Amino acid sequence: MQKPSIPKGTRDFTPLEMANRNYIFDTIKEVFRLYGFQQIETPAMENLSTLMGKYGEEGDKLLFKILNSGDFLNQVPEGELSTLSSLQLTGKISEKGLRYDLTVPFARFVVQNRDKISFPFKRYQIQPVWRADRPQKGRYREFYQCDVDVVGSDSLLNELELIQIVDEVYRRLNIRVVLKLNNRKILSGIAEMIGEAEKITDITVAIDKLDKIGLEKVNEEIASKGISKEAIALLQPILLLSGTNAEKLEQLKSVLAGSEIGLKGIEEISTIIGLCETMKIDTPIELDLTLARGLNYYTGAIFEVKALDVQIGSITGGGRYDNLTGVFGMEGVSGVGISFGADRIYDVLNQLELYPETSAEQTRLLFVSFGWKELNYCLAWAAQLRKLGINTEVYPEPAKMKKQMSYADGKKIPFVAIVGETEMIAGKVMLKDMKSGQQQLVSREELIATLGNAE
RNA sequence: GUGGUCAUAGCUCAGUUGGUUAGAGCGUCGGAUUGUGGUUCCGAAGGUCGCGGGUUCGAGCCCCGUUUUCCACCCCA
Predict the structure, then answer these.
(1) DSSP letter at A74?
(2) Would you kindly state where each structural domain of chain A is located, as residue ranges?
(3) Is residue A414 reached through a cis peptide bond, with omega within 30 degrees of 0 on the bond before it?
(4) How far is the C-alpha of A47 from the C-alpha of A95, rounded, in Å?
(5) Residues of chain A scoring pLDDT < 70
(6) Do A293 and A302 touch, CB atoms closer than 8 A?
(7) Smallest Cα–Cα separation from A425: which of A366, A387, A370, A385?
């Protein structure tokens, strides 16, 4: 006999865990719909040509690739099996991969279905994604993302709407969060100002580490990328920005005075923060220049949400991408979106023990009986209760009472209807309240009334 | 990809300097109680000690390899 196991970084979910997870999904969905977003789904697997090159070199490595079916070696030229590099070989034996996120498949979806879509297109999508990462705290190889995106509108009101959604979702889930905000254009402006426009990626990656490794190490890292002393000196006031959002923006404005794109970024972020103030968003919003976000397709606003009371990576992130559909041949469509990490939210809720009593999915009544005749009698009663929307179970065999009662107890079923010959003759059932232990002989109407009232 | 760490019953874990037959709690099943659960009492089932090799008279324990767990880095939800 083999020991059962599941691949690393994946998980099973028990009924209790599913009830808790559904609470998250339902909350998020409800809020999405409140803003007029509509659900779509895309396949678990995409063609590798759709996925490759969209997430940078690292991302390509983290893609799960699917081996071609059939004789997958027949595309490999004779005798080249040992001479090809792994990368060249995967190109020959695999043409599909599991999706890495929901944004790129969505971009593909938009381009492919543009005839059925009217813009601006607001969609949400809740599906698992897969990454061949090393699993660790808050990191899985299979996890759910809950994406909301708007494409076909470059209005900053879309950014506002996403922030409102973040605000509402975390209010409902009772999680205290901070929303960090940045703008890729500001980062570009900074790179431009110090004359290192091409090194923007290196600079943002280094800046991102500021609170982890400190100013000195960040400067070292930037220097190691071949950036001049003068440029690093120019960077310092930016790394040392402080004060309120408004103060930071003022300081930035003078530093970036010479950069058109930088000023544009500042203007955008000011507008967004202004809108949030008007709409009285509760969630604290913090301008954070160290927020770079690895994905290279962002072009404008960048968001990230962190839980205040739990040490875990970001639980929501996103931003604006101006031309994601461009690679699929549809130019000039700007989009902005965010992604809620359901699994991390689940971990946060678990750690804070914030789950509400989830009774909606529970069985309310179990029929316990002594023989097949009684079981038949119960079936009719159960059918009627279910018609009335009462979650009802019939224990499927006339097992010992103790066994049937333990089943009800283990499943925390609040009411049990016991049926023996006496009850059948009387046309009633013995209804037992499992909490109080009290029981009485009741008619069908009385049973329905009791279960109805206890809702 | 790099570094560390863990692995013993279904679950959580004990297991002495390497020494006879590897233990406990919980859970499961049976009984006390043949029409009553959650409490109590009694009993039973359940183990290739992750896997492979090595050292030894002898390995759950020591060594090597491998896989897995968890964690950190990279990166990210």
Answers:
(1) G
(2) 365-453
(3) no
(4) 6
(5) 1-2, 196-198, 211, 293-295, 358-361, 453-455
(6) yes
(7) A370
pLDDT at A210: 73
- Which DSSP helix (H) or strand (E) runs through A276? helix A260-278
Residue with minimal CA–C1' distance to B27 is A410
Q: Name residue, tokens 């072009």.
A: A299
The CA radius of gyration of chain A, in Å to the nearest whole number, is 29
Q: Taking the C1' atom of B50, which residue's CA lies nearest? A: A3
Task: Pick out residues 416-435 of chain A having their CB under 7 A from any atom of nucleic acid strand B.
Answer: 416, 418, 420-423, 430, 432, 434-435
Q: Sheet containing A94-98: give its strands across.
A: A45-47, A94-98, A65-67
Degrees to nearest 5, angle at CA A228 with A227 and A232: 85
Q: Which two tokens stand for residue A205?
A: 């990656």
Residues in CB range of A295: below 8 A, 6 or more apart: A55, A56, A319
Q: Which pairing describes strands A316-321 and A121-130: parallel, antiparallel, or unpaired?
A: unpaired
Q: What is the CATH number of domain A365-453?
A: 3.40.50.800
Whether the Cβ atoms of residue A57 and residue A201 lie closer than 8 Å to each other: no
Sheet holding A301-307, edge to edge: A38-39, A121-130, A142-151, A335-341, A316-321, A301-307, A177-183, A285-287
The confidence score (pLDDT) of residue A143 equals 94
Residue with smallest Cα–C1' gap to B77:
A341
Q: Is the CB of A210 under 7 A from strand B?
A: no
Positions 113-172 in A, CB within 7 angstroms of strand B: 131, 133-141, 143, 145
Query: How many angstroms separate the CA atoms of A180 and A113, rounded?
Result: 33
Q: What's this model's pTM, rounded to 2 decimal places?
A: 0.89
Give the per-residue pLDDT at A215.
75
What's the pLDDT at A234? 79
pLDDT attached to residue A293: 64
- Can you read off the two tokens belonging to residue A415? 């009411």
